[in-house]
Amino acid sequence: MSEPLLSVDELEVTFRTEDGAVRAVDRVSFGLERGEVVSIVGESGCGKSVTAMSLMGLTEGPNASVGGSVRLDGQELVGADGETLRAVRGDRMAMVFQNPMTSLNPVHRIGNQIVEQIRAHRDVGKREAMDRAVELLDAVGVPDAEERARSYPHEFSGGMRQRAMIAMALSLDPEILIADEPTTALDVTIQAQIIELLRKLNRERGLAVILITHDLGVVAEIADRVAVMYAGRIVETGSLDEVFYDPRHPYTWGLLGSVPRVGGERPRRLAQIEGQPPSLLNPPSGCRFRARCPHAFNMCESEPELIARGEPGDHLDRCWLEIAERPVLRELPSGQIGLGVPTS
Amino acid sequence: MTTVARQEQASAEPPPLLEVKDLAKHFSKPGAGLFSRSDGGVRAVDGVSFELREGETLGLVGESGCGKSTLARVLLQLLKPTAGSVCFRGTELTSLGTRKLRPLRRDMQMIFQDPYASLNPRKRIGQIVGQPLKIHGLAEGSELKSRVQDTLERVGLSADYYSRFPHEFSGGQRQRIGIARALAPEPSLIVADEPVSALDVSIQAQIVNLMADLQGELGLTYLFVAHDLGVVRQVSDRIAVMYMGKIVELGPSESVYSRPIHPYTESLLAAVPIPDPHLNAERERRPLSGDPPSPSDPPSGCRFHTRCPHATDVCSEAEPPLVEYRPGHFAACHHPLGS
């Protein structure tokens, strides 16, 4: 098999804090093919954003150490020098963040901010760069782009700011867009517009997307493949259908069951995961989910590997339960997936 | 029980716990006056009427800026309304002064969105949860302590947390502390303003289930304000949908979700991503275009007409009244769906 566009291998990110070392990302591996949408999903503090930042070399610093490997078309990015990273950032991989207001410079016009980025990487004149900026704003659905390019960020609504951020990310025609919770700060009708935009960019430009989110609904809308993270590790990964219709890890079952839905029969209670995620300052030995897992047994004190446990393939999970012993994923009356325990 | 109450019990409908009529809250622009025209204020809540029945949960949904949080605060008289009436157990609240309002406040408590900002970091958990008991003179000394500890256990916390500080707790535990504080004075009405939106989904499910359990045990009445339509459906008996300061649809939960009447409700529901890839792909999607208009300059007629796929001339001219289309299911629209 040829190497994917982006290949992440045993990525490890450790931060030194006053209270001790925190390994925020622990041996995370995944690949991204050209034109593919991979979603990394998990709750606060699971390491999904740190993973995203590390791909761009944004977690360097005296208190951070990054190990493992991130290869873009075979080129190693972990430990690469500033010049190499500058050539990659924006040009081949670009990023949009959760909060567009803090990511845009409030004292510069939107158009000029895009122009600045283009001219930092390409030898083009101001006029030409501005034409390109207007074209990009128009492409991401900013109405009256020529006029709005002269606006300041505060004159834009939240949805429009996120569109401007995406336009800026696309300005150098990258192959990969890393989107870190791009719709979390937005209202649901605006969120739907932004997801539609990302889908269109993926389809029409063949843009590969790494989508970081906590929202399984957003994942279901757009992802081709999914990696579920818990306490710094990937606990399950597979195609969208594998993870949503044949989830293997008890944490994935719990996540899917705890989302309240707008359709179908309403469950009397939501499936809940007891307790809370462990502190990464002092993570438990073995499976990190075992303290909250209703199926934990003595094997769970040692750590399971992330491997295919059913048929050989790309559907991997990190759980000791034998496939045959995994509780049948009972369809609850609501059609919801539960933890395999009655909800009454 | 008073004679009045007995008489009313005899009739079919018990009186509502809370009755809201034509309630409005307008904010004037800061600095309005000398150089600005007299208009231009924000009509955050603009003529809202509904009832809250004893023991039910009314879910109040809408996008940011629609006025749902302002409405919650005006109901509890944390903000003075510009016009209209709020009647709680037969007492008109809007005309009461602070002193007369205080004893009634015991019966109406609030849970806030941000579990980090809503707990005083310098106070111990016991002081935080015991505060309302002290203010209302409900308990003191060892009785106060044991009541606080009982309340902590009721919300799933250990009684030992009594002398700890808020920073020692996670977001979910803090929200339980916020709930304990609201429960301590034994209110009948709890207004919860986005109580789970700051929490992770697995913790969110814990809090939603806890609130449902407490309602079952204590017969509480909830006004549940949230932007997450899935969460609201899970907890609510009835739903009110707000858009730009007005209730545009109000009805029984299942009726509103399965057969919405107002096009805004329909578009809101269609915009929610469902964690089910196949269902998502099958759904008919007509994403709303554009942003909500500025609340300081609302559109004429129906406020939704600028974004509505069904809008005609009448929509920009006349404001549609809230009409009952199905039993208990109201909507304010010139072109109601499914009719």
Notable characteristics:
heterodimer; A: 344 residues; alpha/beta; Rossmann fold; four-stranded antiparallel beta sheet; 21% strand; globular; disordered C terminus; B: 339 residues; 12 strands; disordered N terminus
Verbal overview:
The complex is a heterodimer of chains A (344) and B (339). Chain A has 344 residues and is of the alpha/beta class. Chain A has two domains: 6-223, Rossmann fold; 239-325, no CATH class. Helices cover 30% and strands 21% of the residues of chain A. Chain A has eleven helices and eleven strands. In chain A, strand 4 (64-72) and strand 5 form a beta hairpin. In chain A, helix 4 crosses helix 5 (126-139) and helix 5 crosses helix 7. Chain A starts with 5 loop residues before the first strand and ends in a 27-residue tail after the last strand. The model of chain A is unreliable at 330-344 (pLDDT under 50). With 339 residues, chain B is of the alpha/beta class. Chain B folds into two domains: 16-26 and 41-107 and 188-339, P-loop containing nucleotide triphosphate hydrolases (Rossmann fold, 3-Layer(aba) Sandwich); 121-186, no CATH class. Helices cover 33% and strands 20% of the residues of chain B. Chain B has twelve helices and twelve strands. Chain B has helices at residues 3-10, 68-75, 98-105, 125-135, 141-154, 171-183, 201-218, 229-235, 253-258, 263-271, 277-282, 313-317, and strands spanning 18-27, 42-52, 57-61, 83-88, 91-92, 108-111, 189-193, 221-226, 238-243, 246-252, 323-326, 329-331. Chain B has an eight-stranded mixed beta sheet, sandwiched between helices. A four-stranded antiparallel beta sheet of chain B has the order 2-1-4-5, with helices on one face. The longest helix of chain B has 18 residues, at 201-218. Chain B starts with a helix and ends in an 8-residue tail after the last strand.
